[in-house]
Specification:
Layout (H helix, E strand, L loop, with lengths): L3 H17 L2 H11 L17 H11 L3 H18 L2 H18 L4 H19 L2 H14 L1
Helix pairs in contact: 1-2, 1-3, 2-3, 3-4, 3-5, 4-5, 5-6, 5-7, 6-7
Length: about 140
Amino acid sequence: TIDSAWTTALGFWAEVTVKVGNRSAADQLRGHLLPFHHHVTTTQLTVQPSVAHNLGLLDRVLGQLDQAETWFAEAMAIHEGLGSPPLIAATQAAWAACLADRDQTDDQARARAMAESALATATAEGYGYTARDAAAVLQRLS
């Protein structure tokens, strides 16, 4: 059954897949999540990043950086619509990493601005993982 537990589980699997860089799993998860790109992952008690955010993470692992940017833009619109600083900062950090990888035209400047914004929010609010991710992008760009 596809329900909130299913999307939550696949969202967490997507995060693990990205952390270990498993391209085969990323491709499989991408196929499962794709029809739900416009959904927000929730357990009814917590809200996790949108499915579009997870698709951006997966496409980054798959080397599909232009498509990943499209997903991060969709995720940002969803997270801004929710008015959720932790989700906005998480997407900024992930999107910044994607831009740093792609390194075209103004990608480095955009990545720096997103990572700085994510780091400021994450530091002020105590979002440790997001602060670490944003700081890692900034260090790569130095």
